[in-house]
Amino acid sequence: MLSPPSDTGSVAPGTARLPPATLADIMTSPVTSVPADYSVQWALTVMRGQRISALAVTADERPVGIFTERDAVRFAAQHRDAEAVPISEAMRTPPLTAPTGTGTRDAYRLLAERRVRHLIVTDQDGRVAGIISEADLIDRLTTADLLAGTDVNAIMTRGVVTLPEDALVRDAVRVMADQHLGSVVVERHGRPVGIVTERDLVRLGDEGIDLVATRMSGIMSHPVQTVTGATPLAEAIERMEQARTRRLVVVDESGNTAGIITRHDMFKVLHD
Question: Is residue 70 part of a domain?
């Protein structure tokens, strides 16, 4: 378990500051957890039903691993039987942890340095007390903190991976697992018509959908939420909140796919 680093020190001019708070103030609690011998299928069903992006894997109430939507994508690419495989064989271990008293700015630094998106919060006895995601930390920022005056074009991810709507879902699973992607944009004649995300693959895994026979058009989320590169960042954030999504597809003046902007992009920029 990591001890909290100092929350003092200078901050470069223009760097966004997180409001003074500790993980105890913002963590999701109670945490949905699962013993290591439960099946991956059980985990997928719970994640889908509760619309959560991560599960803590525990032994004696202490964290021994974590299973996230990204791990679900990686598991789907292996074409294994989710009913037969215990979560211990699909989880990531050891999980990143920090005590409840850790400052939010320090937690933000830990996630960025370790390049993970979830942190398990522990109490004074090392037991699971809560969980924190990048999104939780982003939500603590004010619009002014989030680079006011910046537009989407400045921080969006370019070269987004796309697939045609008649492609098989297994193609999306393969590329998402190989390139560690959170989503694939579905196109028709160069224009985005849908999107397939990690959360969609959790749903498919729970339903036992045949990835070999299913086409993207049958499972994609649509219509896709889009913005232009000139959209102010504050407006893009508001669009995400209204649509209850973690990403927006960026289109050019012709309506063609130009990139994607996610909450993770915002997190990376704030760290830089």
Answer: yes
